[in-house]
Specification:
Elements: H1 2-15, H2 17-41, H3 71-101, H4 104-134, H5 136-141, H6 144-166, H7 173-184, H8 198-213, H9 240-244
Helix pairs in contact: 2-8, 3-4, 3-7, 4-6, 6-8
Bound molecules: protoporphyrin IX containing FE.
Protoporphyrin IX containing FE (HEM) binds near residues 115 and 164.
Length: about 240
């Protein structure tokens, strides 16, 4: 059954290799930046929009924070998943440079520090998912989007870690990084992706789909103008122990 699914996916990638590794990356990049800019200035819900590029100006530009409920579990979830993503962002950049220039130490850095970031991310994502379904108030306030984003990230992290931490195979970066660079240079070369293992292809395609979906989700908070944090009003987050009294 699983073998059939893998064979089907292999066929799909063989037939649509050009779409997945030429068309999709550009669609995703256009939507990620174009869609975010559009939403930033025009919004997709119209009526409540203000032309204001701050953390608090647009009440639809929000993560719909759940920290108010289940405070004991927001720590492991939010801290681990955010530090995991930040670590992965940096290690992917280092990996791309290392893969393009064949710098072994850089690709090794990607492997080991990326693996740490990936495990941290997955741990945080599982916490985030479980608290959403276990804590009644958070369940009630959750939208489909909250779950979809988590499922996307769990799949991407799982596919990324599968090769490096479970199969213990690494080195595909030497093919993927030149492909990514070819896309950036506007001379996409999908042949570089042909021999890449299925799981890595899935990792990348699911990540590209998430990038395309990104502007329509709460993930836009990643682009929130960060300096406002210095002068915005404080958010009171008292200690959990204080609440018990
Ligand atoms: C188009 C975007 C992306 C590309 C091209 C890409 C590419 C790669 C490559 C080539 C690897 C190494 C795989 C191996 O050799 O086994 C990898 C690993 C990984 N990626 Fe990505 N990735 C992308 C996006 C993401 C995103 C958005 C996340 C999570 C938020 C992510 C999480 C991971 C994780 C957890 C690993 C395993 C790290 C390790 O063990 O060193 N990736 N990725």
């Amino acid at each position: 059954m699983l073998d059939n699914l893998f064979a089907m996916l292999e066929n799909l990638f063989a037939i649509f290799n050009d779409f997945f590794f030429i068309g999709l990356p550009y669609i995703s990049i256009l939507l990620l930046f174009g869609g975010t800019l559009y939403r930033l200035f025009f919004g997709f819900k119209g009526t409540f929009r203000k032309m204001d590029r701050t953390a608090r100006g647009d009440f639809l530009w929000t993560t719909r924070s759940t920290g108010f409920f289940g405070r004991a579990s927001i720590g492991p979830a939010a801290l681990c998943l955010h530090w995991g993503i930040i670590t992965l962002f940096v290690t992917h950049l280092v990996g791309v440079v290392g893969g393009v220039l064949s710098l072994i130490a850089w690709v090794d850095f990607f492997r080991w520090v990326g693996m740490f970031g990936g495990i941290l991310l997955l741990f945080g994502l599982v916490w985030a998912f479980v608290r959403r379904i276990v804590i009644p108030q958070i369940k009630a306030m959750s939208k489909a989007e909250d779950y979809i984003v988590l499922i996307f990230l769990i799949l991407i992290a799982f596919f990324g870690l599968y090769q490096s931490a479970i199969k213990l195979v690494f080195g595909v970066t030497y093919s993927v990084a030149p492909w990514l660079w070819s896309v950036v240079k506007l001379q996409p070369d999908p042949s570089l992706m042909q021999a890449v293992p299925l799981v890595n292809k899935l990792h990348i395609v699911v990540a590209l789909l998430l990038f395309a979906y990104f502007p329509f989700t709460k993930l836009v908070h990643a682009f929130t103008y960060p300096l406002t944090y210095f002068w915005r009003p404080f958010i009171s987050m008292r200690k959990y122990t204080g609440l018990k009294r």
